[in-house]
């Protein structure tokens, strides 16, 4: 299993990119615009992780910008921790047998969600699964690109 990213929801995407990239120095490596869901996902890597990010993958920050939501009072800022797994069905079956609720089963073969005892959202992604359509310039590999 490989750690992929931490997702946070941001109310001001430009302001967050100015902070994380302009000031903190992270680098945008991928962007997915979802017209139907009305949200944008922007993946950021630390500069030292860029070579790895273009290879087997590197830990990333995933900014989620919901076009119609800008106030995250009540703790919705934090989204999830994401991991890539070798066999998402086997991992979910093992977790379910261990008493973990699979909040979002891997019906599509690539994404599932569970929650920790304190309700921290955990995203499980199938290694090597096809990615949703992204910007044409994105050249990220299948894994580590989320
Ligand atoms: C690509 C993969 O890493 C994702 O995280 S997509 C997960 C998906 N995200 C969204 O739908 C973004 C918009 C949504 N309104 C939101 O604010 O999360 C998703 O299932 N999100 C739910 C979650 O708990 O992360
Ligand atoms: Ni994610």
UniProtKB/TrEMBL annotation:
This entry's Gene Ontology molecular function terms read: lyase activity
Indicate whether Lipid biosynthesis appears among the record's keywords. Answer: no
> Which InterPro entries does this UniProt record tie to the protein?
Glyas_Bleomycin-R_OHBP_Dase, Glyas_Fos-R_dOase_dom, VOC_core
Q: Where is the VOC domain?
A: 2-127
Q: Do you know which Pfam families this protein is assigned to?
A: Glyoxalase
Q: Which UniProt keywords apply?
A: Lyase
Q: Does the keyword section mention Lyase?
A: yes
Q: Which PANTHER family match?
A: LACTOYLGLUTATHIONE LYASE, LACTOYLGLUTATHIONE LYASE GLYOXALASE I
Q: What is this protein called?
A: Lactoylglutathione lyase
Organism, scientific name = Methylosinus sporium
Taxonomic lineage from the root: Bacteria, Pseudomonadati, Pseudomonadota, Alphaproteobacteria, Hyphomicrobiales
């Amino acid at each position: 299993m490989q750690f992929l990213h931490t997702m946070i929801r941001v109310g001001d995407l430009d302001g967050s990119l100015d902070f994380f990239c302009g000031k903190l120095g992270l680098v945008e490596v991928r962007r997915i615009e979802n017209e139907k869901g009305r949200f944008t996902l922007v993946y950021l890597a630390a500069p030292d992780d860029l070579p790895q990010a273009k290879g087997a993958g590197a830990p990333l920050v995933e900014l989620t910008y919901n076009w119609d939501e800008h106030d995250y009072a009540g703790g919705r800022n934090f989204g999830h921790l994401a991991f890539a797994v070798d066999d998402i069905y086997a991992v979910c079956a093992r977790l379910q047998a261990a008493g973990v609720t699979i909040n979002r089963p891997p019906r599509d073969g690539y994404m599932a969600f569970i929650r920790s005892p304190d309700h921290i959202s955990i995203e499980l992604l199938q290694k090597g699964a096809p990615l949703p359509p992204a910007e044409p310039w994105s050249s990220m590999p299948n894994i580590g690109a989320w």
